[in-house]
Queue: 2 jobs
Job 1
Amino acid sequence: MDRGKPGLMAVGVSGRRFVNEADSYHDFVVAMHGDGGTPVMPAYLICDHRFIRKYGLGLVRPVVSRIGAFVRDGYLIRARSIEGLAKSAGIDPVALRETVETYNADARNGVDNQFGRGSRVLNRHNGDPEHRPNPCMGPIEHPPYYALPVTPCTIGTTIGLATDVDSRVLGEAGAPLQGLYACGNDISSVFRGFYPGPGATLGAAVVFAYRAARHLASGDPAGGTVSGRTGDSPTLSPPTNHASRNTDDFQRI
């Protein structure tokens, strides 16, 4: 989780930050898509030499990786100055310099006045507990400087089959289809498109696979739920709008 470590920030071609970089990858990508505003694609992760040697960056592993090979392959962009880095990456150089200076000042004070980086439990979990005053923020000031362009990709789904609490797939009328179960990424997200934290997809898959197995073992696949209730049971239906939401809903934990 290099994004949560102190000494890295994310910007668009405008040279401006657009997100709390230490938030989950889900929230990071929602911000890249614009979250109601202008999309930021690609985004650029910006750091200095001290950061990349200590924490790594993407495919670049800390300490052991030969950074030059990643630069020659075009995976990384490197320059001796912030302005030079910006020009090589196609980022506004004046804005990037201003953004770095603002970020560095906040990092030294330990408070991110733009996005509150390091103020949430998940942020700090992904930071460096030995770094003070903010485990998620450190100045970017040791050349050479690096930029890593990133774009969104798909690793899971939020919309799928509607099921009940025992993972029985529901038909168009809302009634369970006898003998048909589903769990994991085949069903609609129990979090309605939100991402509360690590393990959300795996945790739900395990829980509802267990519920399905218990219901099968009950010997009554067409009947009520394992708990003995009959009639309508809670369903897991597709979210109405999984992209527009307050990121604080689940992140302030």
Job 2
Amino acid sequence: MVKAITHTERMNRRVNRGRALRVAVCLLLLAALSGCMQLNIGLTVNADDTVDGQLLLTAQKSLLSSRNKNIPAAFAELRQNIPALPPGDETSYEDSKLFGTQINYRRAPLASFDSESVKLVRDGEFYRFTLPLDPAKYGGKIAQQNPQQQQAFLKLMSFEISVTFPGRVIDTNGTVNGRSVTWKVDSNQDKPMELRAVAEAPPRPSAAPAAADADSGGFPWLLVGGGVLLLLVLAAVGVLLLRRRRPTTPAAPGATPPGPTSPGPPAGAPGPG
């Protein structure tokens, strides 16, 4: 006996097929858009807790133009699916195949690298770098907060990251070469939860005793004593210079310099007639 299909069952099947079709279309769209996205970062951490380097986020022009003939507008829309990047001197990037944005860092403070996408902080005697690869942070706009689509968006991205530290690298899930750590995660490859590295930080410069006294509110005796000593030395040098430059007292006008004394007549000799 063939069971009759009710109207409600037919409607449910149509709804399920429609949902499956929409998911498939979204995944294809994500593959087309995110598969061409690359995030390249090269950073150098300086011993004074500043950072130099460059960040490059790009997408293929051919796929951007297939979505919007205005390539910059298509890229701007796609970038909304990427977590916030560390701020810096940002310019547009373009070559024959790629379009994107380039951010340059020159002596940027570590505080600038506390973003959703990149975290680089000093923790006492260590530098800690993390780049979270949380699917919930990627593909939010296109995927419409669908976890499956967000995972697909992230999986189809590629990452190439390099960080150089001033001290020894002591822990990482990347490849170590001296004081540098690199990661290369290709498109359509399973992603780790995060890219991480920990390196030794050089000791911070110790504060001078006078500066420490000033900061603590005490009287700066060392500065006062040094100033008095400097004034005494300058005064002594000035007195010596004045003595060297004082002219010799000239002879009085009309005075005849004393000549040799004429010998007198011998004792008992007759005087002049």
